[in-house]
Specification:
Layout: E1 5-9, H1 15-24, E2 29-35, E3 38-45, E4 48-54, H2 61-67, H3 73-82, H4 89-95, H5 101-119, E5 126-131, H6 146-157, H7 160-166, E6 173-175, H8 179-183, H9 190-197, H10 205-211, H11 216-229, E7 232-234, H12 243-248, E8 257-259, E9 267-269, H13 284-299, H14 306-309, H15 318-332, H16 335-339, H17 347-364, H18 367-380
Antiparallel strand pairs: 1-5, 2-3, 2-5, 3-4, 6-7, 8-9
Helix pairs in contact: 1-6, 5-6, 6-11, 7-11, 13-17, 15-17
C-alpha cells in the first residue's frame, strides 16, 4: 500500500469527503489537489493533517507573515538574505528575534488552515493521493484537529447548490457510533448543536430542514459539514470504506491516468508540475554545475529583472513564460533539497530564488501586471 497512487476528479467527490476517509482510515501520505493553475499539497500522518502548501504567492510563509503584519519587509529581506545551510525561513526569523517560537507556530497553523480550507470550495478539478509512511519532516509537522479543519472549512466554503448534489433531501441521517468523541473536537455554536440533536436515525434531511428554525440553505450546509466531519452518516453506512476501495470508485485503475470523457479509449496523463531532478541520478559534474547555477543566481537575486530570473526575453509569450517556470522548477524547487542531500545546504538559497521566481511568474502571466512592471522596468533601465 505504501507505494499506491490514486487519482480522481473533484467533480465526483469533495475535498472534505476525501480528507474524512483518509482521517478515519488513519492513512499516511500526500494529497495533491489541482484546479486550473492552482495547486495544494496536504501531508497526513496516521490520518491527521500535519502541514500543507500551495502554489500561490500568499501561501509562502514570508509573504503570508508580511501580509498579516506579523513581520516587516526589512525583517523578511534580512532573513531571506541570511538563510543558509538548510535553516528554514521561519526558524531564521525566530533566531533573528523577529518573532517568538509561539508566534511562528500560531502563524504556521493559520497559514495551513487557510491553504486547506480554501480548497474545500473546489468542486471541480483533480486529486491524487500517494500512500507514504513518512510524508513530512518532523521539524515542520504541526498538530491539528483534522475533523475541525474539515468541519470549519466546509461551513466556510461549501455552497448550498453543491451540498444539494452531495446530500439528497430524502436521505435518512443517523448519528455516528463515535459521535461524542468527534464532537469534543468541534467548535460548534449552540444552534449547530441544536441542529445536530434533531438527527435520530429516522428523519430525512427534508424532515429536519422543515422542522428547524433558521435559513434552510444554511441548515443544509451545517448538516453536510457534520457528515463531512464524520458525526453523521446516511442510514445503511456503518463505517467508512477502506481507503483503497474508496479511491478505487473514482478511477479506472490506480496508475495515475484518467480516461477521456468521450471519443476513443485514449488516455492522457495528468501533468503535475514536479521537480524531476529529485528523481534523477546526477553525476558529480551535474551536481557541481547545478550548485554553481543556484549560487550565482542567488548572489544576483536582488539585481536581476523578472525576465532574467525567468530566463525569458522581454518579448516572451505567456505560454513561453509558463513553460520556462516549469523548467526552472527543475533547479530551484526547495523540495529538491529535501530529497537530494547534495543540495540540502542550499535550501535557503533555493527558497529565496523560488519565491522571487514565483513572484515574477505571477506578474508576467498577468497582462495588466506585466504592463505595469514593463513600464517601471523600462524607466529603471
Amino acid at each position: 500500500m505504501s507505494s499506491a497512487v490514486y487519482i480522481g476528479k473533484l467533480d465526483d467527490v469533495s475535498v472534505a469527503e476525501v480528507l474524512r476517509n483518509l482521517h478515519f482510515n488513519r492513512a499516511s501520505g500526500i494529497l495533491d489537489l489541482q484546479k486550473d493553475k492552482e495547486q495544494r499539497r496536504i501531508f497526513l500522518a496516521d490520518g491527521e493533517v500535519k502541514t500543507a502548501m500551495g502554489n500561490q504567492a500568499g501561501h509562502k510563509l514570508g509573504q503570508f507573515l508580511l501580509a498579516q503584519g506579523r513581520i516587516n519587509a526589512d525583517a523578511l529581506e534580512a532573513a531571506v538574505r541570511d538563510v543558509r545551510h538548510g535553516t528554514r525561513l521561519g526558524q531564521k526569523l525566530v533566531n533573528m528575534g523577529s518573532m517568538s517560537p509561539e508566534q511562528l507556530d500560531e502563524a504556521m497553523r493559520e497559514l495551513v488552515r487557510t491553504i486547506i480550507q480554501e480548497a474545500m470550495g473546489w468542486f471541480t478539478g483533480l486529486f491524487r493521493f500517494t500512500f507514504k509512511d513518512f510524508p513530512v519532516p518532523h521539524d515542520i509537522a504541526l498538530r491539528f484537529s483534522t475533523v475541525s479543519l474539515i468541519f470549519q472549512g466546509t461551513l466556510a466554503y461549501a455552497s448550498p447548490s453543491f451540498v444539494q448534489t452531495r446530500l439528497p433531501l430524502h436521505a435518512v441521517l443517523k448519528p455516528a457510533p463515535n459521535i461524542q468523541d468527534i464532537f469534543r473536537d468541534l467548535p460548534c455554536t449552540p444552534y449547530q448543536t441544536y441542529l445536530l440533536t434533531q438527527v435520530n436515525g429516522n428523519r430525512t434531511v427534508d424532515d429536519i430542514l422543515a422542522s428547524a428554525s433558521g435559513n434552510p440553505d444554511e441548515n443544509l450546509v451545517i448538516l453536510y459539514a457534520f457528515i463531512a466531519a464524520g458525526l453523521l452518516a446516511a442510514a445503511g453506512e456503518d463505517k467508512p470504506l477502506p481507503a483503497a476501495e474508496f479511491f478505487g470508485r473514482f478511477q479506472d485503475r490506480a496508475t495515475g491516468e484518467i480516461a477521456r470523457k468521450a471519443g476513443p479509449k485514449k488516455r492522457r496523463r495528468i501533468k503535475w508540475i514536479h521537480p524531476k531532478i529529485a528523481q534523477a541520478e546526477l553525476s558529480a559534474d551535474d551536481v557541481k554545475k547545478i550548485r554553481n547555477k543556484i549560487q550565482k543566481t542567488y548572489d544576483r537575486l536582488q539585481k536581476i529583472s523578472y525576465y532574467e530570473i525567468m530566463d525569458c526575453p522581454p518579448r516572451a509569450t505567456q505560454r513561453e513564460i509558463h513553460y520556462a517556470f516549469m523548467a526552472l522548477c527543475l533547479y530551484y524547487d526547495p523540495e529538491i533539497a529535501d530529497t537530494k542531500k547534495e543540495f540540502s545546504d542550499l535550501k535557503g538559497m533555493m527558497e529565496a530564488i523560488y519565491d522571487r521566481m514565483e513572484e515574477a511568474y505571477l506578474t508576467l502571466i498577468d497582462v495588466k501586471k506585466r504592463a505595469d512592471y514593463d513600464r517601471r522596468w523600462g524607466r529603471a533601465n
